[in-house]
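Support request from a user on the community tier.

User writes: "When I paste my structure tokens into the form, the page sometimes reloads and wipes my input. The last time it worked, I copied everything first. Here is what I submitted, just in case something in the input itself triggers the reload:"
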């Protein structure tokens, strides 16, 4: 009996202890870590007390612990009771936590189990697929059994968010949005992007000169660049417009809302006001001749019935979701240039000619590969088998994009930051796909590219130094993205001009 007791209690103790001893858990989730540490101490105290004073009590604890461990095991290994061809891997709570704290978690699992494996993201059961060619085939061949995995806010949008729309409605709106966010529309806002970028980077440099280290948190400056660019491209609003100021005020409620929850009252009020402002702006643009080219005017040009309520809500949520993507990419670019400063010099002296990507484009592509692009999610709505693996209904599929972009057979020395790889060869979309593919591929490639280009073009006119940084961080949700360290500080030493606030 004693051996059984020791074994059961030791397994339980080890399960908590591995997380308490994991430094990444402590760094990224200090509160959860403290809770686990307290739980471990309490647990050890209970075991020690019962061992000393109550053998029957210890036996009861052992039985209860054994049952709890059995429940975890049964959940972690559903193939034990399903008996079908589920992919290898465990749905374990420890793995669920490690996926949040270790960037190489999925890569490590793929090494151990092969390119298709299962894991848990808290209560969700997930099948992970590494390898874009395999993932393309899966999504293409099982298109009717897989759906985009929606965030809850989509239910509050008239007609749903483009990314999660039902197929028929998506067929109607997707082409409209491709054109409304297409290159000509984005280029019409390029002057605004260049102007706001010059202003904000000058401010960043000036604000840095007032600090002892010269280092400034770049987030607020980058956010203003991205927000102003989106406002011009989507709605034709510029910062001198009174309506733009009203828009920015009203937007705060929606910006503050966390999208994993249904819209709060504040966010709903904000959304209602934003809809009114966009309607007013649409009306104003209709009366203006010639009206500036922007998503609103482009939608109306393609179809006189546009922009309808679905289109307006989608533009507002594109703003809410996609600005964060671009701000994050700009942070990753600064982080990458901080660690690889020779690329600043390469951008300055760029001699690229012809059709191949210039140095700025190569740097952006490599930053997307090494840092920004992570995954796509789909939900299995109908059970099926693919390549010998069972995909049960209700499970999630995670296409591991970042991990696929680390394949040494495709990307020589994948761990190295080497933008020139994009000069040496063309990658097909089944090798390199930072913006997705197929009907749901990203509509924002042109806008992302124009903003990154504006920022990098302006940045290299300064002496740039990343004066502080740290390891990347991750939120507590599995669909959060890795972000560069919040400690990131940048110093720009300016060519002398006076910034305008
Ligand atoms: C760093 C920047 C960005 C990255 C890495 C990115 C990535 C992606 C990816 C991977 C998808 C496919 C999602 C899926 O298949 O489930 C997607 C879809 C989408 N993206 Fe982006 N995106 C970025 C910026 C933008 C911007 C700037 C906009 C708009 C201005 C935008 C608008 C959209 C829309 C509307 C979709 C859904 C398209 C559809 O379902 O028809 N994205 N994006």
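"...and here is what came back when it finally went through:"
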């Amino acid at each position: 009996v004693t051996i059984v007791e020791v074994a059961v209690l030791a397994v339980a103790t080890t399960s908590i202890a591995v997380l308490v001893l994991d430094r990444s858990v402590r760094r990224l989730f200090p509160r959860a870590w403290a809770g686990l540490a307290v739980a471990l101490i309490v647990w050890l105290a209970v075991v020690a007390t019962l061992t000393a004073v109550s053998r029957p009590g210890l036996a009861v604890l052992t039985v209860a612990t054994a049952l709890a461990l059995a429940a975890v095991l049964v959940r972690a290994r559903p193939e034990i009771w399903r008996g079908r061809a589920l992919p290898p891997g465990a749905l374990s709570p420890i793995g669920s936590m490690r996926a949040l704290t270790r960037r190489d978690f999925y890569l490590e699992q793929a090494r151990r189990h092969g390119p298709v494996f299962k894991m848990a993201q808290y209560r969700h059961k997930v099948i992970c697929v590494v390898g874009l060619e395999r993932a393309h085939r899966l999504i293409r061949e099982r298109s009717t059994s897989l759906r985009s995995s929606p965030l809850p806010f989509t239910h509050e949008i008239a007609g749903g968010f483009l990314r999660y729309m039902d197929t028929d409605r998506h067929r109607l709106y997707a082409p409209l949005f491709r054109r409304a966010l297409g290159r000509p529309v984005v280029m019409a806002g390029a002057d605004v992007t260049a102007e706001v970028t010059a202003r904000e980077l000058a401010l960043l440099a000036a604000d840095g000169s007032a600090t002892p280290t010269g280092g400034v948190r770049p987030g607020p400056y980058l956010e203003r660049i991205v927000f102003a660019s989106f406002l011009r491209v989507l709605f034709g609003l510029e910062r001198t417009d009174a309506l733009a100021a009203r828009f920015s005020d009203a937007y705060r409620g929606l910006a503050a809302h966390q999208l994993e929850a249904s819209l709060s009252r504040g966010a709903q009020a904000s959304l209602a006001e934003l809809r009114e402002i966009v309607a007013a702006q649409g009306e104003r643009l209709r009366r203006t001749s010639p009206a500036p080219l922007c998503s609103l005017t482009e939608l109306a040009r393609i179809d006189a019935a546009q922009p309808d309520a679905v289109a307006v809500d989608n533009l507002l949520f594109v703003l809410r979701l996609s600005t964060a993507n671009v701000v994050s990419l700009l942070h990753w670019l600064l982080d990458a240039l901080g660690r690889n400063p020779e690329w600043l010099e390469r951008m300055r002296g760029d001699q690229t000619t012809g059709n191949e990507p210039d140095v700025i484009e190569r740097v952006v592509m490599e930053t997307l590969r090494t840092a920004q692009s992570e995954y796509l999610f789909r939900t299995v709505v109908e059970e099926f088998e693919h390549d010998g693996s069972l995909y049960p209904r209700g499970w999630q599929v995670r296409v591991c994009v970042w991990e696929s972009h680390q394949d040494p057979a495709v990307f020589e020395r994948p761990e190295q930051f080497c933008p020139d790889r994009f000069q040496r060869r063309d990658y097909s979309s089944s090798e390199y796909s930072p913006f997705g593919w197929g009907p749901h591929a990203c509509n924002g490639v042109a806008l992302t590219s124009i903003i990154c280009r504006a920022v990098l073009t302006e940045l290299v006119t300064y002496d740039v130094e990343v004066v502080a940084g740290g390891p990347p961080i991750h939120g507590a949700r599995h669909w959060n993205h890795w972000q560069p360290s919040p400690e990131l500080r940048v110093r720009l030493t300016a060519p002398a001009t006076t910034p305008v606030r």
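Agent notes: The reload is a front-end session timeout and is unrelated to the input. The first helix runs from residue 2 to 20. The two ends are 75 Å apart (CA to CA). Escalated to web team.
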